[in-house]
Amino acid sequence: MNKKTISIAVALASISPDLLYAEQTKDNATKLEQTVVTGTHAKEAHDIKIEPSSTSKLNVSLEDLPRSVDIISNDEFTERGSLNLQDTLNYTSGVFAGPFGIDTRLDSSQIRGIKPQQFEDGFIAFEGFYNAPRVEIFTYENIEVVKGPSSTLYGQGALGGIINANSKLPKEDAQGEFGVQIGENSRVQTMFDSTGAINEDGSLLYRFVALNRDADTEVEYVQDDALVLMPSLTWKPSEDTQLTILAKHQKHDTGSTLQFIPSLDATPGFYAPAPPFPAPPLPALTELDIDTNTFVGEPDFDKYETESNSVSAMFEHNLNDMLTLTTNTRYWKSESTYQYTQAIGYSFAPPYLPALVPTLPPLTAPGDVYRLHYASEKELEIFANNLALKANGNWLGLEHNAQIGLDYVKADTVDDRARDPVLEALYQTITMNPNAVLPGAFLADSKINLLDPQYSGATTIPTTREYRDSSNEQIGLYLGDIMRAGNVIASVNVRYDRVKQSFDRVGIYGAADSTSYSDTLEDVNTDFALMYQFENGISPYYSYAESFTPNDADQNGNLVDPNEGSQHEIGVKFLSSDSNTLVTAAIFQIDEDNRVTDTDPANFKVIDASYEGAELSVQHQIEDIHIQSSYTYLDTEQKQTGASKLKVPSVADEMANTWISYIPSGGVLNGFRAGIGARYIGNTVSDTNIYETAGYTLYDAMLGYRFADVDLQLNVSNLTDKEYIVGVSDQDLGASSYKGPERYASLTAKYLF
């Protein structure tokens, strides 16, 4: 590690124990959780008490887990006014939430500088291909953030970590809520959640969760409408057996708030002007000259419509006092229609397109850009099963928490995209790559002014199509054990994976333009860790973990070697004796092989990368005031032979945040609550490191009051309405910048029953 990382590590190690809060207590009564608020509005709201969900593969309370894990409860992200999954991560150490700015299509984040793999109830979610609805956090009980490689438990777990969202399931105690949320951009959202026992003996439990939203967004002509229906039923025929059936119907009608606004400055982007093409003729602009709500598409064309249906069965049976058998199964199917428009980067379009396409209208005014349109229809079908046998007990002089499991996932995707042969020929000329393709993209109504957009009407989608079918089938066998001998805890896991990938593409030029591949990969991953729990609450640990994720094919149809990596982590967890202060700290080094920097076949590039960093997270309770703070430092490097050092793009080098909440436990202010937060995000760089964004600080606030069974809460994010650039890309079609969300206020009223 470099000197800066080492100095931070020394600083973390020197923190006074008087300032530290709790991973665990020695009577094992308190369970670790990095959670903040419950709906009780009492002092107990900030107690550390949540264990991993029953659908989690973590298998133990977090106090006995020698690695970095955070659990964010529904109460916590509700208090902070989170609107989506990436919002729930705003105050989590090591996590960069929303590295691509405002985006209604999906949730983006990074854990330790790397995109995480997303899971739901322990099942992998093949999100990111624009073929499924964005998740709705109202349906979740909590969010687990596992930092670092997790392949031994989750299979195709990303190198930086995984995010596992756990659904709301039936409870024995009857409770419910009905709520209405109104907010800026004409947002109206209704929510319903009810659970309890159906019969007198409590052997049948139910839960019904529903959400309906009608909303616009800060980007003109882009809505964010949603409908979710999620019923579930639990049957407990005995104390040792239970079966839960969970169904979910979800529908979204939205578009792309990520408008790919070009970086309109004088610095050349990835495609620098070269003879015989002239230099850009127009005056330079900055990104912030363009309104955040600018829509570069066509109102009657752009849309992202998705619908999904799933059914899950979760079974658990205690064979005896030591052995428990679990099996979880899910079937999920989704469909999407995705149409959007992208402005072509200023450094790319003026020198190239007019010279190659004389029929294009000239760019004559500041803010003029050319546009590309994109159209696709997709289907996704997933079947997944996880079978595990868990053993808890004492043998060979040790306490064991062991499990052996077998999981299976099969995901099939159908992808139907428009293609424009004329545009593709131009792209191949520009990139000097005869294999370059732009599936889904076409030129039409191709000019707009970003400062004064005028729309031309509906866009005609080309009848020329390309069809892609892909299949991913994985079977994994895993074995793990967490062993305790006195104050020493050791964790050992091993996993074997066999993955079969197949891909068929019927191109627009017939056999000459078609690609097909099929391959089977096998891999074994291990991780191990060691922790010592001192009597004073300090628990230092060391862990080593590996990851394995299959890659796609390159532009020639050849399967790229899988993305693999490893992590070394040294950390400490501390719980004060009064359980009022928690500090977790860690330093880590991650090495990554076969990182694909761009999935576009025209720019397919594979490199190695490294990530070094440190994290610090603090929670402290002072009577009715709860403070949570974190700091993250990252130093990244792309390892390229013969090239100067390049940072990994879109990764913040530093992050810091603090959230302070006040919840009186009695007196004249009983029922009142308030919160204030600050988030700092440091610099990021573009793909080639030509562009660098400036760091920025955002503020959030909350006011709430509960009277009897009525609860009111006002939330404001980006309190000062700061304008800022989250990141910049200078690949593909020139440089594009990603703007951050503007100020947003919402008022939520709930009736609790």
Distance between the termini: 54 Å
Overall tally of domains: 1
Largest sheet: 22 strands, antiparallel, barrel
Secondary structure: helix percent: under 10%
Global morphology: globular
Notes on the structure:
With 753 residues, this protein is mainly β. The protein has a single domain (3-359, 373-752), classed as TonB-dependent receptor, beta-barrel domain (Maltoporin, Chain A), CATH 2.40.170.20. 6% of the residues lie in helices and 50% in strands. The protein contains 6 helices and 34 strands. It has helices at 3-13, 74-79, 85-88, 151-154, 349-356, 421-431; strands at residues 69-73, 95-97, 109-111, 117-120, 123-124, 140-147, 161-167, 175-183, 187-197, 204-214, 224-238, 241-254, 261-262, 303-318, 323-343, 368-395, 398-418, 441-442, 447-449, 465-485, 488-506, 515-532, 538-549, 563-575, 581-598, 605-622, 625-639, 654-662, 672-681, 696-707, 710-717, 725-729, 736-739, 744-752. The strands form 4 sheets. It has a 22-stranded antiparallel β-barrel. Strand 8 (175-183) and strand 9 form a beta hairpin. The protein is globular.
Features:
22-stranded antiparallel barrel; disordered N terminus; Maltoporin, Chain A; mainly beta; 50% strand; 6 helices; 753 residues
